[in-house]
Design brief:
Elements lengths: L2 H18 L12 E3 L2 E4 L3 E3 L8 E4 L8 E3 L6 E6 L5 E5 L1 H9 L17 E6 L1 E8 L6 H10 L4 E3 L5 E5 L18 E7 L15 E8 L1 H8 L3 E4 L5 E4 L3 H33 L9 H7 L9 E2 L2 E4 L1 H7 L8 E4 L3 E7 L5 E7 L4 H14 L10 E5 L7 E5 L6 H6 L10 H20 L2 E2 L8 E3 L5 E3 L6 E2 L7 E2 L11 H6 L1 E2 L1 H17 L15 H10 L17 H17 L10 H12 L5 H13 L7 H16 L1
Parallel strand pairs: 3-4, 17-21
Antiparallel strand pairs: 1-2, 4-5, 5-6, 6-7, 7-13, 8-13, 9-11, 9-12, 10-11, 14-15, 16-17, 18-19, 19-20, 20-22, 21-22, 23-26, 24-25, 27-28
Helix pairs in contact: 1-5, 10-12, 10-15, 12-14, 14-15, 16-17
Length: about 650
């Protein structure tokens, strides 16, 4: 394609965009978009640079660690740390976060309030009602006792100077309780609270909470009818729609833009056709996608060895995709529990949008999972046709949840992950990743949420939507960073170069989670230790293993467990090295874990490992040098 043609297309496209920018329409407002770690966002969210596209602005998409969300017009900005479902978002109050780190009692001077508007209403989960009552002087014990009698049935907390907090664990406290002479010095406040048992109140305060929203009927009809949800000065709902003249201008610019785009695409495809003779097609290109789906029909066909399910069949298997059947909600789709007519239990992954990006994820998983066979990789049973109304993948159902669930999620309280079980999980996961790397595949999203466990706690590694083919004749793949915060290789994020050592880094984070039971990202840790990898490195270089390893594993009463967990921590440290050349391969990681399991990883092998690390160090002042000195002392003391 000539430079002149490219320039003309570029200028014409800019002109169309400038004309369209005068008013909101479907071509200027994306149906879905991403901002930082928040993916697949849609109305009512909008980028702060596109205020006409929504009613909940988001900004700071490139700001670390999280973007900001303004739930109430003109109100406070919160950190958006993740999505639970399409209608919920986890947020963090930065002011409250700062206060809790300094003086937790000062948190009771705050009050989180999300006011509704005629367009949208909010429900904040994990917000607890507290009654803050100023204590009178010791000269008035009668008044103080009457105060306690007034709050009969409530827990009380007197650990803060100058006031008492009254609260309940269950139910919604009635604001009318503030009525009465004895409650004149009391106020009702709401704060995020995650209770485990009565008492020690301030330790259960947190800065994060879950927000659910619901559009009003008026706003929903207005938005999906092509209008814009607004509120007038009297706080009444107003639906703005373009008049006929504006509509004509918009339609004219849209058709003009389409014509320009068709012209540009035609020139582009001619250029691609000529270039294709001299360049091999990109992995999973449009040509490959067409080949994969060659001659498929909606139901009954088989390609790449897997069947094509009809949409109606999967709809029946999941009871019309009932919300109670939801197993999980990821970045690209929702997973449902289902049961096929032949009795097989399945996990049905329903992708959010039938667009080019989701088609890429859809085909990627088919391409990878049908070419690989390993006992610790999840099995793909089939999928829908590309002509189906939705893109759906069907996997074997793994009944025991994810590794994240058992380490620090809903199943953690069962304490079912003893140290031998955790070490076996590490070995099986490392074996699956070593197999992928030997097959020229980089997983790209290794994390405890993608490690599924069956009833016997055997591993099934899942979610290959963003995995990449890594030919053995190249050193790296250049691509924009994809993955999950807390697990992404910092070198990948910095240089946009993906290698098999990127998976090694992510697996290093998983190893730290296995020995610590801590999540990869925790906003309640110190600002420099929010990231678990940083926290672990800090403890390991100081030989403070007892501050990193989960005490419930019993390392303080079992020397064998102490040796094994410390050895795994040292191995994780190598995986987390910033310099990729210093990280071991997954095969080396697997071999070391097996040696640790069989107690063959003795002091001699540890010393050899440390010596090899020392030889590869570029500087005597590096972090690893400090760790080598520390660990060498441990080795010497155990001889």
């Amino acid at each position: 394609m000539s430079l002149a043609s490219s320039s003309v297309c570029f200028i014409l496209s800019l002109l169309v965009m400038l004309v369209q920018a005068k008013g909101r329409n479907d071509s200027t407002c994306p149906k879905t978009f991403s901002c930082g770690n928040l993916t697949d966002l849609s109305f009512p969210f909008s980028l702060s640079t596109q205020p006409d596209c929504g009613i909940v602005p988001i900004s700071g998409c490139d700001v670390k660690p999280f973007p900001r969300v303004q739930l109430v017009p003109g109100g406070e900005w919160f950190y958006g740390i993740g999505k639970e479902y399409s209608y919920t978002v986890w947020v963090v109050d930065p002011n409250l976060q700062t206060i809790l780190r300094k003086n937790k009692c000062q948190a009771f001077n705050e009050n989180i309030s999300l006011s509704d508007s005629p367009s949208i209403s909010y429900t904040a989960v994990h917000l607890q009602n507290f009654f803050k009552c100023n204590r009178t002087s010791s000269n008035n014990p009668y008044i103080n006792q009457n105060m306690k009698d007034h709050f009969v049935g409530y827990y009380s907390y007197d650990g803060c100077d100058g006031f008492t907090i009254y609260y309940k664990f269950y139910g919604v406290d009635d604001e009318d309780i503030l009525a009465g002479n004895h409650t004149a010095n009391c106020s009702l406040i709401r704060l995020p609270y995650y209770p485990t048992e009565p008492g020690n109140l301030v330790n259960f305060l947190h800065p994060e909470f879950l927000v659910e929203w619901k559009l009003s009927d008026d706003c929903s009809k207005c938005h999906y009818g092509g209008g814009r949800c607004q509120t007038d000065k009297k706080n009444n709902f107003l639906c703005y729609k373009a008049n006929r003249r504006e509509l004509g201008l918009i339609l004219g610019t849209v058709f003009g833009g389409v014509l320009v785009m068709i012209t540009c695409l035609a020139v582009y495809f001619i250029w691609c056709y000529k270039k294709r003779k001299y360049n091999p097609p990109h992995f999973l290109s449009t040509r490959k996608l067409s080949y994969i789906f060659k001659n498929d029909v909606d139901g009954g066909s088989i390609y790449f060895g897997i069947p094509v399910f009809s949409y109606s069949e999967l709809e029946e298997a999941t009871n019309d995709f009932k919300s109670s059947r939801i197993l999980g909600d990821g970045g690209f789709g929702t997973v449902y529990y289902g049961q096929l007519k032949d009795g097989r239990e399945v996990a049905v992954k329903r992708l959010y949008e039938h667009n080019s990006e989701q088609m890429q994820q859809f085909v990627n998983e088919i391409e990878i999972l049908t070419r690989l066979r390993h006992t610790n990789l999840v099995t793909l049973y089939g999928c829908t046709s590309r002509r189906s109304r939705e893109l759906i993948l069907v996997y074997e159902y793994i009944p025991n949840g994810t590794l994240a669930d058992h380490l620090h999620g809903d199943r953690a309280k069962n304490r079912s992950l003893t140290w031998p079980v955790r070490l076996n999980i590490a070995i099986e996961t490392a074996g699956a990743l070593a197999y992928l790397h030997a097959s020229d595949i980089i997983h790209c999203d290794v994390k405890t949420n993608n490690i599924l466990l069956d009833q016997s706690f055997s591993v099934k590694v899942a979610d290959f939507g963003i995995s990449r083919l890594f030919p053995n004749d190249v050193s790296h793949i250049s691509t924009a960073p994809r993955g999950t915060p807390g697990y992404i290789d910092p070198k990948y994020h910095e240089c946009y170069e993906l290698t098999i050592k990127s998976d090694v880094y992510s697996f290093g984070v998983v190893l730290v989670e296995l020995i610590s039971s801590m999540p990869a990202v925790d906003m309640m840790r110190h600002s420099q230790e929010i990231n678990l990898a940083s926290f672990a490195i800090n403890k390991i270089v100081k030989c403070a293993f007892n501050e990193l390893i989960d005490p419930s594993l019993g390392f303080d009463s079992d020397t064998k467990i102490w040796e094994m967990t410390r050895s795994v921590a040292e191995l994780a440290f190598l995986c987390l090295q910033t310099d990729r050349d210093m990280r071991p391969t997954m095969t080396e990681v697997l071999d070391t874990l097996k040696e640790i399991q069989t107690s063959e990883f003795d002091n001699e092998k540890r010393a050899k490992l440390l010596l090899n690390q020392a030889k590869s160090q570029p500087s005597p002042n590096s972090v690893t040098d400090k760790w080598i000195t520390c660990s060498s002392t441990i080795v010497a003391n155990t001889k």
